[in-house]
Amino acid sequence: MDAIPQARPEESGGRSLPVVFTSVEFRDRFWRPRQESVRARTVPILLERSESAGMIEALDVDTPPPPLRIPIGRWGGTTQMFWDSDLGKWIEAASYTLAVKRDPALEARIDDIAERYRKAQRPDGYMNAYFIRRAPEKRWTNLRDWHELYCAGHLIEGAVAYFQATGKRVLLDALIRYVDHIAATFGTGPGQKRGYCGHEEIELALVKLYRVTGERKHLELARYFIDERGRQPHYFDFEARARGDDPANFAFRTYEYNQSYKPVREQDRVVGHAVRAMYLLSGMADIAGAYGDEGLRLACERMWNDLTGKNLYLTGGLGPSKANEGFTFDYDLPNDTAYAETCASVGLIFWAHRMLHIDCDGRYADVMERALYNGAASGLSLAGDRFFYENPLESHGDHHRWEWHVCPCCPPNIARLVASLGRYLCSSSDTEAAIHLYASSVTRLALGGRKVTLRQETEYPWEGTVAVHVEADAPGRFVLKLRVPGWCRAWSATVNGAALDRPTVERGYLRIEREWKSGDVVRLQLAMPVERVYANPRVAEDAGRVALMRGPIVYCLEAADNSVPLHRIALPRTAKLEARYDAGLLGGVGTVVGEAMAASEEGWDASLYRTDRPPPVPVRVAAVPYCVWDNRTPGAMAVWLREA
Fold first, then answer.
1. Does any domain span residue 221?
2. What is the rounded CA–CA span in Å between residue 354 and residue 86?
């Protein structure tokens, strides 16, 4: 039912495409419980909390609007303006669960919301609940700040997903009418506004709409929004003057904030609001792939190198500053004040996945995996009912997941990612299949007219042995690619027990071409020791510090597992570290234990300062995966430790 990966011929050009997520069944101990939690708990809870917040009631255009629940801020708007986007993401997440397991009660709730939107839609196709009900005269007057196109994008994605899951068209048809209105309003033709959204999102949504409708005009509109961004004279200046405002009054001062400071093809740095940047770059990668646009691809490549080489947290988090929810200056990666919004890591996964399907290069999959297991997964509690907006790498015990937020964008974002995770696992074309992520799972796909099933057996990410069992309805020749992760320093592979004579690795993927038949087994052994990781010396906050990783997992110390305050702990360079799996801890996780040193408090009771150094004493330390911190007794946490 999920048609998102099915590209038009002019898009694919023979490239591998993501598998349909419903063709993947997770059977592992990491993602399967999280997917079940999203289905059974997160999706219903988000609906309840959205309803309590007033989001559903906000669609009732036949009644006068009640007073604002969230007041107008210094930027001239309220986050209530964005409620359509939150509902759109929730519909998308819910639809992904419905595609796997139908739920009549859940469908009825979505049908009700779809009907409310259909009823609210204006005769010209316009459909934004806030402006229809509260300020119809102000629609399309402040694209810079009020996010009408951003909201439309998330509603489009929700409508596409719901149609693919159920075949129901009420919401999809309403959004197609809305897109027609948008296409008539914006563009380079006579009487059209040459605008684009201050918060990117509609670009990648329009590509999804194109893939489900086959209407090339949707793809062209996405390309327009990308190409128009940052052109002079600057649309946001023109727009501000048209509504009687001074462009200099922009709350964030610089158009780097929304990546419109110059045309996107000329940009070479990740700047401004991190989530907006990731959505823009995802849309740019989509259009680069669809049109074979080398200029856009090279721009993406430049910004990829800037992000991963200077501005990315070890966890796959990004955007260190709360002030702009985004980037500051190169190598500015503070730990305890890290903003690192969950949505930004989710957006990075979207972008990496799209880059991976322009050019099957393992470095994109490496970052996708890092962000997935760490920066994004941390945003969702193990119970599926509490969420992080910000993801610091150090806490003094005062940072916790919350039930709801004045801007609740992150919960449905992580929910829709986890619910559709199968599409990130594997790609295929007529002649090859590529495995990007490892997890016990069953993937069903078609290769050159043959039905092929790839069954992974592994304890990944806790262990590095992966067995891929091939089942095919008929023998046939094709290429099987298995990613050799960038973190892995030693590996080996066998086919049916025999070592490969001359293993070929292309851009991080082991390439095996042969005549495959049912019963063939590829066994990949990835060495997975505990690794010490150091930051570039330009990162001031991590000077003299070390972090621990094993495989794709970043580890942290929590107060709950350690007997002394974390700030007193130092890890000796010679300390022996041991990996263990604890089935009874935090739903079953790998841990890292070892000996460290801690500054002794002895003799300091009456002194604040002394001239002699506190003597170190040995302590036992235990680290848990960063993604599961703050699921127990509240306390301090640290990823980066002092090294002795």
1. yes
2. 23
